[in-house]
Amino acid sequence: MASIIIPPREGRAVRLARGGHVRVVNSEGAQVVDTWAFHPSDPTEFLSMEHSRVATYKILFEVGDCLVTNRRAPILTIVADRSPGIHDTLYAACDALSYPPGHPNCADNLRAALRDFGLTPAVVPCPWNLFEHAAIVGGRYLRDEPSAARAGDYVELRAEMDCILVCSACPSTGYGISGDGPTRGARIDQI
Ligand SMILES: [Zn+2]
Q1: Which terminal residue of the chain has fewer beta carbons within 10 Å of its beta carbon, N or C?
Q2: 57 CA → ligand 1 middle, Å
Q3: Cα of 171 to ligand 1 centre, how many Å?
């Protein structure tokens, strides 16, 4: 098993072959992990939250769901979820405009991680915000709740096509989404 450590406030990418399994691990608990997946040679095709929501008829995906790209191609299946099972699909990634100048952010983490694979995304797609609990109130409103993920919780995914998976340990300390105190890291285990 190969592990990739994602330090706090940073992002990392890994190439997955079709059929490969990976676990995104909340190594210390309560950490939101913004997650994307891209076609390995064409970054205009990527895991799409809006296409996956209509493919599953769900706002929150669960074990057995097959998520799709913006070209409606299967890209990731949720094989296991050892977490409270709440993974926001609605919020944009934090970016440079979210913070004072120079603050790390998920959008820049995504670009940096993809650069290592020679890819430049034309846009920052809506991330799949693993372990993030954006509560849907009254069928209309959103309210930030702290991540309920415990240390060691993970989501296991199977690649349905060759792809580059990118995960960012969200640097946000606002709104309490990753609990109190400094943000933590995460880990990608290839199994
Ligand atoms: Zn973020």
Answers
A1: N
A2: 26
A3: 5
